[in-house]
């Protein structure tokens, strides 16, 4: 590819990006899984937030050239969609089972067994991060590591519970109306990108708004009810021995919950990255901010970025803007410390 200093060269022939949709039958209904990459490689499974799928939740980070080369070079990606959230999903039948968060976590095991996967790396956003964390607590031997974005671990606060109840009623009576979309966008994005009278909303917000319009409201309603009835899994966090990397936007409604979760994890195996001027969905709003922490986290497992790809100066994170603790031997695989990463909005 080009030699420009502000571009990234990726050898596309060495990375398989052809995706294939699989409909996996489980004991709790069908699950759609989009598979990208070479299935002989280690597996990275993803799980999106409420009302989203991999196209609306992970497109930003996987379309970031540097992250693309890092992840696709080392992993085969298995994007798991919550039931009824896959692209082109039909309205779920009343005969389909109503699933709890435990059921959703148990579905993941059946997906892994279907693809004959052993230990996997996990990446989830908010509700998806909760389900993957619950999965890791219940099936510790199946999880290599956790990459969690604005995660949940406690039962809903009264504020969240009430907001979810409002959305539940709106979805039931009005479908995916404008107000539901606005409430979901408040959940996902910071005010900096949601726009105002003077500033238009960002491309990421506009794209997400369009994709939300394609969701089937009864399907979203089912997942929302499960998430709104989730139990507190804080005590279970102490069982986790896999390494964990947590990202959270400082403008996320779940910022304090991510800090609480970090305080309960084993500090020898966990790290926290806070991203300024960012909402919950760091994967879409500021995916470049994930690159260097991800790279050093994965180095602890023996993964690496291919030599054909150099760090782009367009990335808002540079080595000089990262906490020095991230470069310590502990975070290179011996152990990970909680860190706080900040960068200037002007970079």
Automatic annotation (TrEMBL):
One Pfam family cited in the UniProt record for this chain: Ndr
Gene3D superfamilies attached to this UniProt entry: alpha/beta hydrolase (3.40.50.1820)
SUPFAM superfamilies, sorted: alpha/beta-Hydrolases
Protein family (similarity comment): Belongs to the NDRG family.
Listed name of the protein: Pollen-specific protein SF21-like
Species for this entry: Solanum stoloniferum
């Amino acid at each position: 590819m080009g030699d420009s200093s502000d571009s990234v060269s990726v050898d596309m022939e060495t990375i398989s990006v052809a995706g294939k949709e699989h409909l996996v039958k489980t004991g709790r209904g069908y699950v759609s899984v989009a598979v990208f990459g070479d299935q002989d490689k280690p597996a990275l499974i993803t799980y999106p937030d409420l009302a989203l799928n991999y196209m609306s939740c992970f497109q930003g980070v996987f379309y970031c050239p540097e992250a693309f080369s890092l992840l696709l070079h080392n992993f085969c990606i298995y994007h798991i969609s919550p039931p009824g959230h896959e692209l082109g999903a039909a309205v779920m039948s009343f005969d389909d089972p109503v699933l709890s968060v435990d059921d959703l976590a148990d579905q993941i095991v059946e997906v892994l067994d279907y693809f004959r996967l052993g230990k996997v790396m996990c990446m989830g956003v908010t509700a998806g991060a909760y389900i993957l964390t619950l999965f890791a607590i219940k099936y510790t031997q199946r999880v290599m590591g956790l990459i969690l974005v604005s995660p949940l671990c406690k039962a809903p606060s009264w504020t969240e519970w009430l907001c979810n109840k409002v959305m539940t009623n709106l979805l039931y009576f009005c479908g995916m109306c404008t107000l539901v979309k606005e409430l979901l966008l408040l959940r996902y994005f910071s005010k900096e990108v949601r726009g105002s009278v003077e500033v238009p909303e960002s491309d990421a917000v506009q794209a997400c708004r369009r994709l939300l319009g394609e969701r089937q409201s009864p399907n979203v309603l089912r997942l929302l009810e499960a998430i709104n009835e989730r139990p507190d899994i804080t005590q279970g966090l102490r069982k986790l021995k896999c390494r964990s990397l947590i990202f959270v936007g400082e403008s996320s409604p779940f910022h304090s919950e991510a800090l609480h979760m970090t305080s309960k994890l084993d500090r020898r195996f966990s790290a926290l990255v806070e991203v300024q001027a960012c909402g919950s969905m760091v994967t879409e709003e500021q995916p470049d901010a994930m690159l260097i922490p991800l790279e050093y986290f994965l180095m602890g497992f023996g993964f690496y970025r291919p030599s054909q790809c150099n760090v782009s100066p367009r990335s808002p994170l540079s080595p000089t803007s990262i906490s020095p603790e991230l470069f310590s031997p502990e975070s290179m695989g011996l152990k990970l410390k909680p860190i706080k990463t900040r960068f200037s909005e002007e970079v």
